[in-house]
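Before a colleague's protein record goes any further, I have to sign it off. Thanks in advance; the entry in question is below:
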Amino acid sequence: MEWLAANYGLLRQAWLLWFVLLFVGIVAWAFWPGNRRRLEAHGRIPLDDRGGGDCGAPPQCAADRG
């Protein structure tokens, strides 16, 4: 426990650096030109009207609602 208390500042900086690098990596991956078409298609999923029923789910949903 003493080691942890003595190195708290270093560990805190290491975690901050790790999370910043992770965030930058995720943002870079999301905006990478090769991912654009796929991610735009995923973004339109809630707006697609191919679900069938009233609630946007498969046709069984409308039948279950009565």
